[in-house]
Design goal:
The chain has 407 residues and is mainly β. The chain is built from two helices and 32 strands. Strand 4 and strand 5 form a beta hairpin. The protein is globular and about 65 Å long. This is PEP-CTERM sorting domain-containing protein.
């Protein structure tokens, strides 16, 4: 297919290229900076999340923030100088209303009477204006609690897992969903009505709008599995009794399909999808890839993932083809410097095909960025000339330029 460009069209292409928000080599995407360390942030955690409006939530050493490339909203300020009682935060999730769910440690308090220190943790949601406590826990130092993997849906319900340590129920992890008022237990290792093949450890929760949670947990006989549940039924998506030797984090869409990374019994690893009935391979190490990180799936069934390459370096892809499915990779140019490392999370892809990711650059910049797809995800990208070739394009446009689409 050839695209004819008249002189005005070529001029327009030049202007558009000069104002493009980034210059990465994956030509079917433009790139937007959400935040970097040249702003007021000193360091970033490598797990940004994105909603269907293109708003990206991310964590820094200063707190939790959300941005769209134009404005940044403070979700939770965790610096000691702030008035917030929150002193540390971990995993985050964002819904289409811009509400961010996160787990956090609170300032410790002193118990009346004996003066014992009370340690507090909780699950919270905030849109930057109002902060709501979804669930809080307090321990007296003789026991500890771990809280992991909050995931919020568009109804404002949050899924997360927790376990107490130092008690008779040590390591007995529980997965729940709650809106702050009503709590539903999805799975608990020691509950009598739960399949006793399920082990106690549970993590990596992903919640869809139907209230179904995908989660990974250990098995009592060894190994691990990925399951989905709604508090009434539990479905096995994949486990280590078959072709898999180890399973990674899960990401579920509103169709009930789960994407995950896994190691294989036969060697190698891959990115897979499953719904409890069928399992499909998205990419594996039989081709160009050497290893895989987290995967994220949207409602169209597109799966994005972080992967290492046999040839060296890493990249973010939406399939097994290194050309048509590449989003960005190390060695690519981004905002005037070279990408040296990337980070991607299981909630990093939205339904419009935008991706949120962390990148570090050769000039010392680290930051959070958004990739905006310029076509249909999975289709071949359209070649976009580098800025150095723009003068040639402009001159050629006097007679009519032809840009051939890659096959």
């Amino acid at each position: 297919m050839k695209l004819h460009l008249s002189l005005p069209t070529a001029l327009m292409g030049l202007c558009l290229t000069l104002v493009t928000t980034g210059e990465a080599q994956a030509a079917s995407f433009t790139f937007t900076k959400i935040a970097d360390n040249r702003d007021s942030f000193s360091s970033f955690f490598e797990a940004p999340v994105i909603n269907n409006q293109g708003t990206v939530a991310f964590r820094t050493s200063e707190g939790i923030f959300a941005g769209n490339g134009e404005t940044i909203t403070t979700i939770s300020n965790t610096t000691v100088s702030s008035q917030s009682p929150i002193r540390a935060s971990r995993d985050i999730s964002i819904n289409d209303e811009g509400s961010v769910a996160f787990n956090a440690e609170l300032e410790q308090i002193t118990a009346p009477g004996d003066g014992r220190a009370i340690f507090r943790k909780g699950i919270f949601t905030s849109n930057g204006t109002t902060t709501n406590t979804i669930r809080d826990f307090a321990t007296d130092g003789r026991t500890r609690i771990t809280i992991d993997s909050p995931s919020i849906n568009n109804q404002g319900t949050v899924a997360f897992s927790y376990s107490f340590l130092g008690t008779a129920d040590s390591n007995d992890s529980t997965v729940v969903t709650t809106n702050g008022t009503t709590t539903t237990t999805i799975a608990r290792g020691e509950a009598p009505n739960v399949d006793d093949t399920l082990g106690r450890s549970v993590e990596s929760n992903s919640l869809n709008d139907q209230g179904i949670v995908a989660f990974r947990r250990g098995l009592s006989g060894g190994g691990s599995g990925i399951f989905t549940g709604n508090g009434t039924t539990t479905t096995t998506v994949a486990d280590t009794s078959g072709i898999f030797s180890n399973l990674g984090a899960a990401s579920i869409n509103n169709e009930g399909t789960v994407a995950f990374n896994a190691d294989l019994d036969a060697g190698g690893e891959g990115i897979f999808t499953g719904n409890g009935t069928t399992t499909n391979t998205i990419a594996d190490t039989s081709g160009i890839f050497s290893n895989f990180g987290a995967a994220s799936i949207n409602d169209a069934g597109i799966v994005a993932f972080l992967a290492g390459l046999d040839a060296g370096g890493t990249g973010i892809f939406t399939g097994s083809n290194s050309l048509t499915n590449k989003v960005i990779g190390t060695g690519d140019t981004l905002f005037g410097s070279t990408v040296t490392s990337l980070g991607f999370f299981r909630e990093g892809l939205n339904n419009p095909g935008q991706l949120a990711f962390f990148a570090s650059l050769a000039d010392g910049t680290t930051g959070i960025f958004r990739a905006d797809h310029q076509g249909v995800p999975g289709e071949p990208p359209i070649d976009v000339p580098e800025p150095a070739s723009m003068l040639g394009l402009l001159a050629f446009g006097t007679f009519g330029a032809f840009v051939k689409r890659r096959k």
